[in-house]
Design goal:
10 helices; 0% strand; 209 residues; mainly alpha; homodimer; Arc Repressor Mutant, subunit A; Tetracycline Repressor, domain 2; 2 domains
């Protein structure tokens, strides 16, 4: 019984399809919807419980706070991370990644969710840890494309694959979350070209020069 | 008289050293201090007025809201932007810029202020506009170093100087504000090397290839 209650208190560790998983799915979907439409500041546990049709005490007991909801949403998003593209070339794979970032951040529904989780992470340590975990998963997932490219000789030996992927994402997120400049497919192309040039010059292969 | 009241309502347009300027300086310093120690969420107009030793009605009348205070702080920071370095080489100037970014973001006092303004910009349009203005000023200021380098032949003709400076800042801000990863001088060096490689490859000179 102790084990059971431990599992209940740790969302994501129970079997999919069970009641706990259904409650979590409904609450996280309501959280995502609230972040998309109202932003981080308006996030309210009672309204999330009502929208998810879950008891308030369950929501408070399991997630404790609005930032607890956001942190768990980020853990769920990390778990659902899709595999990296495999187009056959490094440039093709990096372009798919950059396009995915731009498409997501400019999506009328997902853009506000990312804005909200970035704001939450700036205000709350649990959210910052969860966001670090989300991007860690995402960077490692796409790093496999760079590893494949290095094996084909498209990147210098010793290239740090995560640095290559981070170099693609960084200028796009800088516009989105820091300088609040428009984000277009031209920015995606430029990010890919810059990351490729730096990769080929050995910038991400420490000690290669 | 209409003109006078317009000037009073637009901080920064009055002569330095006047009473309006002194009130603004005290209120913005109290705002910066509150953001450094308590973050964006705890920002409270009454406490700012008390800390600045300025009447509450003055603070409410001039800045209207906590986000109004942050937006005006950002306009003030943009106005105080210091000139770019001039070391004689593009690499030297970009390194000075990257070091300044890392030093600022990892500073125990300024780091939390930047975290707070980035969070505020994610939640509030006026803050987003002000943050865009701040980084616009900062990027244009450092772009002069790239223009000088291009005139010396250190960058291909037609290089967009703002893109070069943005390429240096982006991976540093990505770690700070998005992925919440540690930020070190090694990251500054890598950002400079990557921006230089992309510049030399003509990535930031559209139509040059």
């Amino acid at each position: 019984m102790k084990q059971e209650s431990h599992l209940e208190a740790t969302p994501g560790t129970v079997r999919p399809g069970g009641r706990t998983a259904k409650v979590r799915a409904a609450v996280l979907e309501a959280t995502r919807e609230a972040l998309a439409t109202e932003g981080f500041h308006a996030l309210n546990m009672d309204r999330i419980a009502a929208a998810a049709e879950v008891g308030r005490t369950t929501v408070y007991r399991r997630w404790a706070s609005p930032t607890g909801l956001i942190a768990d949403l980020l853990r769920d998003m990390a778990d659902r991370s899709v595999p990296a593209s495999d187009t056959g070339t490094l440039e093709g794979d990096l372009r798919e990644n950059a396009t995915l970032v731009v498409t997501t951040l400019t999506d009328p529904r997902m853009g506000p969710v990312f804005r909200a989780v970035i704001a939450a992470a700036a205000c709350d340590d649990e959210c910052a840890d969860a966001l670090r975990g989300f991007y860690g998963t995402r960077l490692r997932t796409w790093a496999t494309a760079v590893d494949r490219a290095a094996a084909r000789g498209e990147a210098p030996p010793g290239t740090d694959p995560v640095e290559v992927v981070r170099a693609v994402s960084a200028p796009l997120y800088y516009r989105f979350a820091v300088s609040h400049e428009p984000l277009t497919t031209a920015d995606a192309e430029r990010a890919v070209a810059a990351a490729l040039a730096a990769t080929r010059a050995g910038v991400f292969a420490p000690g290669s020069d």
